[in-house]
Design brief:
The structure holds 2 protein chains of 2 kinds. Chain A is α+β, with helices and mostly antiparallel strands. Chain A is built from 5 helices and 8 strands; from the N terminus they run E-E-H-H-E-E-E-H-E-H-E-E-H. Chain A has one domain (6-182): Gcn5-related N-acetyltransferase (GNAT) (Aminopeptidase), CATH 3.40.630.30. In chain A, 26% of the residues lie in helices and 31% in strands. Chain A is globular, with a radius of gyration of 17 Å.
Chain lengths: 201, 195
Amino acid sequence: MLGPRLEGRNGVALVPPTLEHFRLHPAWEVQPEASRFMGPRFGELTPEKQEKRFKETADGQTQIQWTIAYEGEPVGFTGIFHIDWVRRDGETGLFIGRHDLYGRGIASEAVRLRTSFAWRELRLRRVHNWVALANRGSRRANEKVGYRRMGLLPRSYFRSGEWYDEWLGEAFANTFPTDDLTARLDVPQRGSGDESQHAGE
Amino acid sequence: MALGGTIRGKKTTLRLPVAADLARFNDWMADLRVRRAHPPWFEPAMPATWKERFAEIAKEPRRVLWSIESDGRLVGLAVGRVWDSGVGLEVRQLVIDPSEWRRGYGADAALALHRYAFDYLDLRRTDLVLHADNVAALRIAERLGYAEYARGRDVYYRDGAYVDQVQLVMDKETWQERWGATEREYASFAPEAFR
């Protein structure tokens, strides 16, 4: 599924992905700066494969994905994957492709929007993820919205002569910051011309 | 998923699965004793759906399915997934027919499968995920050399209650230390073989 538009703070929004956004992914994923804790920096990175991935993402009933927009430009993607609708549990992930924008709080805001949506709209009860322990910014982004460490996989990545552990986190609706949970997601106002024509309006 | 070849244990043999096994797979996935112990591999389905699944299984390169038999009887199945990095194997399923429980088949098949992973495929580590109350599986994992590295809280819900999830990993060094001297796929060649 493609996620709905979620307006955030400081110029960050989660928006429904388009094929054009998906075509940006390979160029992001092959950069050494962005792939330090991903890999393998090769693969079937063709436009045709991206079109197939886009269709599969849109059709998939056990995942929801967004493009992360910053000041109107696509800069990465995030989502909830492998959703088990019976257990109401999903695995979350995030990737900022524009490494020149690291350190601006984009990931933190994207994680906040995504997590709020998981509790308020999808009615999930648990989300979990994997983050490189050394990727402090990403870990902090998750911790700020209630993810707590559930374990540590030792020696998960080998990069430039060093082993790196991987942090495993989980979050529940009751671990989300209260002030964020009570603040409603921004939605278009009635009469603004932006609202949909259905949904019982 | 690929179809796995023969791996011999002492009591069991992991062997190439065939279409005739599918009805039993369906029975196990519909058995609440199995579902209580493991997250189901697939939901129960019509025979035609299982045939489609089987055709898809054979195509997937990183996931491997084995049937497990003992004395010529089908007693279980195993599913492994080679990590994307190619250096590890996740043991995703090891299901033994509930009518065959407590005969040591699970432990025997697990040992054989891990010997194949470390001694034949030369993998660096294996991992698996278990229900925290699956005492029998945890005991087998501990004996093999697994160590817990993460515990998810209230991950599974069955029988009216939540249960935690335990994630475990084993490194090749542990395997070698514990099993390397006794568990080998092949005996060494005599020196004459290299002349």
